Amino acid sequence: THVFWTLSSKDYLLESREKVISHVQENIQSKDIVFVGAGLCTPPDLTLALSEDYERLNWVRIELLGLNSDNPLYAPAVQKSFRFNTYFVDSTFIRDKIALGEADYIPLRLSELLRISLTSRTPDVSLIRVTEPDTDGMVSLSSSPGLNMAKVLGAKFVIAEIDKGMVPMPG
Fold it and tell me: Out of 5, 16, 149, 161, which residue is the most buried by the measure of CB atoms under 10 Å away?
């Protein structure tokens, strides 16, 4: 199950994978800035949908804290469509891209990341992974609430992947 919402409406819709993929394709355009949820909160189905849409896209900037090394956005076939902007060098892939001048690295302390995220340019679209809604309809951003919330609040569109196995974090 996935969630799609815009910040202007604060409404969310539970939708099928196919419908959410269409939201990814409709709302992410060439030259957009797309934030991809941090670390373990990376939404696998949404990043796969974005990578599958690479032929239509050009120069999409992917903001990230870190992705798993097997993420489909790292596939060689999709590289011409995406440019990575990272705050953390977490893989050989990103390290090599930075060395070749094909990715950007913003060195800063993790303690500065939230402030920078709240005051810097905001993403056009945020792709995040959340817990199932509770009885009040609230979701948890789990292990990276600060950064994910900053990027959610600034985005024009937020597309979230619900993970039934994700543990809610109190607070």
Answer: 161
